[in-house]
Amino acid sequence: MAISTGASPHTLRGGLDSLNSGHHQLALRFFLFIVVAHWAEHLVQAYQIYVMGWPIPEARGVLGIPFPWLVTSEWMHYGYALVMMVGLFLLRPGFTGRSGTWWKASLGIQVWHHLEHLLLLVQVLAGANLLGKAAPTSLVQLIMPRVELHLFYNTLVTIPMVVAMYLHTRANRQDNATARCACAPKD
C-alpha cells in the first residue's frame, strides 16, 4: 500500500525549481540569517567561556540564558544539523561554477556534522555513551572538547557557504551566466 504525500513528483520538482530560480535570493537570505544567527550563538558561548571566564555549564550563548534546554537538548542540536543539511541540499541546484563548488564543500562538511549529531542523539536515545564516556560523545570530540568542536564545525560550514554566496551574487561572473536566478545582477 503506497502512502501519498498529497504532492506529485512534478509539484515537488516545480517547487524545487522555483526555490532555485525565482525565489533563490529570498531563500538564500533567509537561510543565511539562520546560519549566521546559530554561528553567532557559538561565538557568544566561546566569548562567555574564554573572555568572561564563565564555567561551561553557565556559558549558554544568548538564547540559552533564558532557555537553557536549547543548549542541553540533543534533539534540538540534531534538528538544527538536519535543517542545515537539508537547506544546503535544497539550495544547491541554484549554484553554478565556482560558487557551486564552494556550496558543495559546505554541504559535504555539514553531512559529516549531521552524522556527528546523529551519533550524539543515538547515544541519548540508547542511554549508552560512546566508549563509556560520562556524556554523549561524537567521534572528533574524542580529541577536541565539545564547545570548541561545534564552534569549529559551524565555522567550517559557514565560511564556504558565505564564499559561495559571495561568488554567486557577483555581477558579470562568467560562471554565473547559467544561473537561473536573479541573485547576481546581469549588468
Automatic annotation (TrEMBL):
Keywords annotated in UniProt: Membrane, Transmembrane, Transmembrane helix
Domain of life of the native organism: Bacteria
TM spans (from-to): 75-91, 111-131, 151-167
Name of the protein this chain belongs to: Cytochrome b561 bacterial/Ni-hydrogenase domain-containing protein
Organism (species): Streptomyces anulatus (Streptomyces chrysomallus)
